[in-house]
Amino acid sequence: MSTPQDQSTTQATVPPSPEFAAQAVAQADLYERAAADRLGFWAEQARENVTWDTDFTDVLDWSGAPFAKWFVGGRLNVAVNCVDRHVEAGNGDRVALHFEGEPGDTRAVTYAELHEQVQRAANALQALGVQAGDRVAIYLPMLVESIVAMLACARLGAAHSVVFGGFSADALNSRINDAEAKLVITCDGSYRRGKPTTLKPAVDAALAKGAPSVTNVLVVRRNGEEVDWVEGRDVWWHEALEGAAPQHEAESFDAENPLFVLYTSGTTGKPKGILHTSGGYLVQTAYTTKNVFDVKPERDVYWCTADIGWVTGHSYIVYGPLANGLTQVVYEGTPDTPDKDRWWSIVEKYGVTVLYTAPTAIRTCMKWGEEHPAKHDLSSLRVLGSVGENINPEAWNWYRRVIGSDRTPIADTWWQTETGAQMIAPLPGVTALKAGSAQVPLPGIVAEVVDDAGEPVGPGQTGYLVLTEPWPAMLRGIWGDEQRFKDTYWSRFPGRYFAGDGAKRDDDGDIWLLGRVDDVMNVSGHRLSTAEIESALVSHPDVAEAAVVGATDETTGQAVVAFVILRGGHEQGPDTVADLRNHVAKEIGPIAKPKSIMVVAELPKTRSGKIMRRLLRDVAEHRTPGDVTTLTDSSVMDAISAGMNATPQD
Ligand code: PRX
């Protein structure tokens, strides 16, 4: 594998302030303890962060690799860990959830209230026939009831399968059938951009396509939109909970009892049902929440802007924060309703201390302008987090300066649906931060960057990210498809987990993520990362956002094609494209110069905010764009295709 360019890989770092370092939850000794005895370290974390009804006898059984068993013999109830034990410890009056509806309605739910709701819901689910070992599909927006529903499943030992509310009836149907869900929990609808939306019709349509495993649909009333009703099948959530007893005795389950299945896309058209189990998952989500975000329940107000439909919502809204007994904000709507300062008004209103969001959101806020956060007092913020894609240094610096007042540490956290919890991230009181790098594996995690032959790469070299040791929150398989699990993750480098991400080690040993390996291009035999070129483009003062794809090219193998959105107030001039190409050449090297650059108004994004490079590749290669059904706005592609055809190419 060749080095893509000759650039210095050392970079300025931002050490933690002495005041922050002195009070930090995680100190440097965590690394030493984990390195000295990794499994002993995880046993310690397991006993410190989780309450076990029966202690485990072995930390790890890897004899059935790649199928791991963590905390063997241990028994616990995940919901009791997230709710009951905080009430028992005398913290029932602490607010667990500050719910903020998009229209401005609010609701504060204490741990005692959450406890009662979860118990009633568990009884209601049980009355509908749900028992340990079943699957329950949850198709809900960001509501208190969504979290209650997930915890009620966990309490019963039934696995939930949350399907993001933006997915279509078809997608919901295939997920319900793949997991053979017994029950579907949904709502009438929600609010988005000031308008009522509906969810129940998609469930009705999904079930009309055939879902033999489903016996009932439990319906939360949120916005009062009219819904069709199937007598005998459909049940109102509020009626079921009112009719249920407020106490529910929780059973203990084996550490390896399935906790949830979550579908994610792979390289084929069929989504993979990623399976997570109970003990190891809870240990690692609780441990990472506490140490990476430096949280203490008496002090912090935590807010993760993800949706529970994605793994970030599972691990860093539901399980990690609640296991820690935190107070958190749950917001239903979009960041620009009614105005572009909504998020910042929420931070000010609740005194949010820890904010966890995605680079795409940060770049959107950059595009909207600094005047929106400037309207609010953000001085409560102590720690900022980032997840989902690599955060380009420009966005990192903006996040730190504009949102964090040049004061807050930023935790860039690398992980995946499959890893279940954060894997590579700085510790905010220990690590000297480097804008754009996720830096080092967390204590207890072992990662490596390797070349094609599986050998570790040297400083400045690119390769593939692999995880060389099992970790507690690792996926336990793909639902119903053992072979795909082995093939996808464990066959490329036998014995090691292949993450599918390109990465680079710098001179200090810090890891830089370079995007999915299918987004790594090979131009004239040189390996180039889409992410690195995007970062270079975004570092140009005129550019708000950029997406780069490798388009097949007769001469060079692949050619770099870039799509850019200019910042507000910047018009495309006659020299814009030439300027940007030269800028990339200056930042990375002439080899990385995009062959063509197209200025666009919007980029095609999935509902979770990921740029759909596959569609851009279609345009760059002059094909009709493929399946656009997962886009937030499918008209975006029409505009880009029309523009591409009208733009003379080099
Ligand atoms: O490519 C990496 C990118 O997101 C992928 C995982 O996506 P998903 O399973 O949807 O989970 C997203 C939330 C955990 C990874 O393979 N990714 C995630 N976080 C980062 C990242 N890339 C770079 N830096 C990150 N911090």
UniProtKB/TrEMBL annotation:
MF terms from GO for this chain are:
acetate-CoA ligase activity
Indicate which residues the UniProt annotation says bind ATP. Answer: D412, T413, W414, W415, Q416, T417, D501, R516, R527
Record PTM: Acetylated. Deacetylation by the SIR2-homolog deacetylase activates the enzyme.
Residue stretches making up the AMP-binding enzyme C-terminal domain:
532-610
Q: Tell me which residues bear N6-acetyllysine.
A: K610
Q: What class of enzyme is it?
A: ligase
Residues binding Mg(2+), per UniProt = V538, H540, V543
- Cofactors, names only: Mg(2+)
- Give the EC number(s) listed in the UniProt record: 6.2.1.1
Report the PANTHER family cross-referenced here: ACETYL-COENZYME A SYNTHETASE, ACETYL-COENZYME A SYNTHETASE 1
Q: What does this protein do?
A: Catalyzes the conversion of acetate into acetyl-CoA (AcCoA), an essential intermediate at the junction of anabolic and catabolic pathways. AcsA undergoes a two-step reaction. In the first half reaction, AcsA combines acetate with ATP to form acetyl-adenylate (AcAMP) intermediate. In the second half reaction, it can then transfer the acetyl group from AcAMP to the sulfhydryl group of CoA, forming the product AcCoA.
- The protein in question is named Acetyl-coenzyme A synthetase
Which species? Kineococcus endophyticus
